[in-house]
Amino acid sequence: MIRLCKSMDTDVMYQIINDAAKAYKGVIPDDRYHEPYMTLEELKCEMNDGVVFWGFEEKNLLLGVMGIQDKGDVCLIRHAYVRTNQRNSGIGTKLLSHMVALTNKPILIGTWDSAEWAKKFYLKNGFKLVSPDEKKKLLNTYWNVPERQIETSVVLCDSKRPLDKISEYTSSD
């Protein structure tokens, strides 16, 4: 079952995120990977900054989490993670479908360029990669990430919701 995560879930969300993020070790640039991948304080800051987390739960155990953040013209999918021992079981697809159904706004997703499995997952689920120029504009407009992360990331958009209607994005040159 998919349910809204609450503050009482923070410790379990932290465990899921850092368990799943171990897949990045040796894949993303070494200067971008650290353990824990996301500290408990960073997770709490994300939640305080408007990232609303949803979880997939089975038998009272949270197996995966995914966040959505409203940024005015768009919504961002943030921090999509499934427990390592539950990967490839459909949990990510169920969570992503739920997130897409939560909004009519264009949806953007940022991920590491070298995380091929993540890009394949989003492409399989109806998202498309934006051009490198669009990526840079979008990351600078809707995310707060360092330049090094911009260099090593990609952005995907929901292929059913065009970006050309986004006023903030189209006016930023």
Keywords, please?
173 residues; alpha+beta; Aminopeptidase; 7-stranded mixed β-sheet; 35% helix; globular
SSE blueprint and pairings:
Layout: E1 2-4, H1 10-20, H2 40-48, E2 51-58, E3 61-70, E4 75-82, H3 91-101, E5 107-112, H4 116-124, E6 127-129, H5 132-142, H6 147-151, E7 153-158, H7 167-171
Parallel strand pairs: 4-5
Antiparallel strand pairs: 1-2, 2-3, 3-4, 5-7, 6-7
Structure commentary:
Strand 3 and strand 4 (75-82) form a beta hairpin. The chain starts with a strand and ends with a helix. The protein is of the alpha+beta class and 173 residues long. A seven-stranded mixed β-sheet has the order 1-2-3-4-5-7-6, sandwiched between helices. Helices cover 35% and strands 25% of the residues. It holds the Pfam family Acetyltransf_10.
Q: What is the share of helical residues? A: 25-40%
Count of DSSP-assigned helices: 7
CATH topology name: Aminopeptidase
Query: Could you tell me the strand content as a percent range?
Result: 25-35%
Helix and strand element order: EHHEEEHEHEHHEH
Q: How many β strands by DSSP?
A: 7
The main sheet comes to: 7 strands, mixed
Top-tier CATH class? Alpha Beta
Shape assignment: globular
In total, the number of domains comes to 1
State mean pLDDT (0 to 100 scale): 94
Note the gap between the termini: 43 Å
Radius of gyration: 15 Å
Q: Determine the structural class based on helices, strands and strand pairing.
A: alpha+beta
Pick out the low-confidence regions: none
The assigned CATH architecture is 3-Layer(aba) Sandwich
Strand arrangement in the largest pleated sheet: 1-2-3-4-5-7-6
Under CATH, the homologous superfamily reads: Gcn5-related N-acetyltransferase (GNAT)
